[in-house]
Amino acid sequence: MNDDKGKKYHTITYGCQMNENDSERLAGQLKALGYEETGRLEEADVILVNTCCVRESAEKKIHGKIGELKRLKTANPNLIIGVAGCMAQKDRDRLFKRAPHIDLVLGTHNIHQLGDIITELNQSRGRVLAVWDQAERLASDVPTVRKNNIAAWLPIMYGCNNFCTYCIVPYVRGRERSRPLGEVVAEAAALAARGVREITLLGQNVNSYGKDEADHADFADLLTAVDAVDGIARIRYMTSHPRDMNARVIDAVKNSRHVCEHFHLPIQAGSDAVLKAMNRGYTAADYRRLVASIRTAVPGASLTTDIIVGFPGETEAMFADTLGLMAEVRFDAAYTFLYSQRSGTPAAAMPDQIPLPVKKERLRRLMDLQNGISLEVNRGLVGTKAEVLVEGESKNDANKMMGRTRTNKIVIWDRTGGEKAGDLVTVAIDAAQTWVLKGTLV
Ligand code: 5AD
Ligand code: SF4
């Protein structure tokens, strides 16, 4: 059966956590065929590029990477090169035209077919285009190879029904489909049994979990059910939509033991006119009220966000509203993006597209403001103690260790020798930077 024993694969992943998880499922199918992972592109028999198309900058980088793979194919004609994920779903056979050295284009709804397709390609070479227009089944039951044994992704739903006017995601990931609650809880328990300490529940809009499910369990019910699984130290979730975040979910977080005190609530813009044009379904005032209720219910919770600058029609005054809201809310961190025109989305056809230099200048002002706030917020933590889940050695210094607080802040401390990955330890915070806290193990 295992014709492919001794063969090697290499995966390259771009984009969001959902893509990271899909790559684990791609790797799992290759492993089941007998393939082993290699870190070296030159010795791979199969190379998979799992792609993102949320912004043009990601696409450019990916096209560059795919181009680089051509020399490997020339050197080894038996090499199989596959392009999977969102760009594959969007561009389909156009990818073959652009890069004739690609053997396989695998859409977002076809992830589970990789094993069969590779077997087929090994028997008779040719090009394979596997891109379904919609999901015929959930790919959650395919084998998974996880790189990280401490923290695991757990998809709870796929797709998105929101159609924010700038966003390509609903077109490449399809309509919302939730996994049954029992299945998610069983997978969480299986992960716990394998020693996983932290689980991140994944979905494009986790707050609408269950709306399409027969038993009508909602996201608050799911959080409560996963919280009751023995052995999981921490539960996180991504991504929340401010319109659908409600008191039931906030209460579930507050009353749980393991759900972390971190709320990632992408606001996208602080101007009501822009929010309306984005089809976000809330106003800046709604968002302020939401933040206030979170901070009342869960004191000490951290709050992070995503913001897009230069949405079509954004005036200097509208942008000033975003700056004003940022200064008022005082996020722990913000992921900020230049608006990127995605063809096929409503915003791409809107008048008054903003020139790139204006977008860049706004982004700079926004980042400067947020960096100052992040540093101030972090300085406020100096002198406190934090529970930290040890992730491992610090990347830059083998004498230091790295982990995260429940509020998702990175903490670095001098290794004592007693701590190992997966431990929950207490760290006294001695110093703060914009993106990291430094401390001493207690
Ligand atoms: N341009 C820029 N940023 C975008 N995002 C989504 N679509 C676009 C786009 N067309 C951002 C949003 C989202 C994050 C994942 O990516 O802020 O929350
Ligand atoms: Fe895109 Fe909006 Fe769906 Fe997020 S919620 S994936 S921004 S359409």
Quaternary state of this entry equals: single chain
| Small-molecule binders | 5'-deoxyadenosine, iron/sulfur cluster
Q: Over all CA atoms, what is the radius of gyration?
A: 22 Å
CATH superfamily of the largest domain: tm_1862 like domain
In which range does the helix fraction lie?
25-40%
Output the number of helix runs: 14
Using the coordinates shown, work out and report the CATH topology of the largest domain: pyruvate-formate lyase- activating enzyme
Q: What number of structural domains do the residues give? A: 3
Shape: globular
Describe, in plain words, how this protein is organized in 3D.
This protein has 442 residues and is α/β, with parallel strands linked by helices. It folds into 3 domains: 8-130, Rossmann fold (3-Layer(aba) Sandwich); 151-379, tm_1862 like domain (pyruvate-formate lyase- activating enzyme, Alpha-Beta Horseshoe), CATH 3.80.30.20; 385-441, OB fold (Dihydrolipoamide Acetyltransferase, E2P) (Beta Barrel), CATH 2.40.50.140. Helices cover 34% and strands 23% of the residues. It contains 14 helices and 19 strands. The chain has a 6-stranded parallel β-sheet, sandwiched between helices. Strands 15-16-17-19-18 form a 5-stranded mixed β-barrel. A 3-stranded parallel β-sheet has the order 7-10-11, sandwiched between helices. The longest helix has 24 residues, at 356-379. The termini are far apart. 5'-deoxyadenosine binds next to strand 13.
